[in-house]
Amino acid sequence: MDDRRLVKTSKLLSRVLRHDPGAVGVVLDEHGWVRVDSLLAALARHGRRLSRAELDLVVGTNDKKRFAYSEDGASIRASQGHSVAVDLQLAATEPPPVLYHGTTGRWLDAIFREGLRPMSRQDVHLSADTGTAVRVGSRHGRPVVLAVDAAAMSADGHLFRVSANGVWLTDAVPARYLRALG
């Protein structure tokens, strides 16, 4: 599979497993899983033939580790980022003292007024390092990195979870816990 097809397939899987499983006629269970054989058959019915080996390649080489297989390898799901309702069964976890969020300058006024909200997703996504936050912010323009006082949030009763690929998730981040870096 060439790089172009790899990226295109990853984007398709993100759409199907995070946002629109009905686009190919699959149904996610309440935890976001779908059987691999059902997914591959549905993709084929919609003109998107993909072998299990190609799926393994996409899952194994995705730089953000967006997808995960069940322990038995029979099912697949997106690790986080869903706009459809799923319960990823992630336990509340004590966060590091500071987490980071990448954005662009055009959103700062709203963020410092309203805080970070999940928007169309189920959770606000945070990273444990500034490098990841810079990459996330760069997708939409010149990046701005926000530091999140996760220790204070946790002490105040806010819950954090961490996905299989290391993305920190929380319901929202009130503005009082944010500061811009740099």
UniProtKB/TrEMBL annotation:
InterPro entries: Ptrans_KptA/Tpt1, RNA_2'-PTrans_C, RNA_2'-PTrans_KptA, RNA_2'-PTrans_N. Keywords: NAD, Transferase. The keyword Cytoplasm does not apply. It holds the Pfam family PTS_2-RNA. It is an enzyme of class 2 (transferase). The keyword Transferase applies. This is Probable RNA 2'-phosphotransferase. It comes from Kitasatospora cystarginea. The gene is kptA.
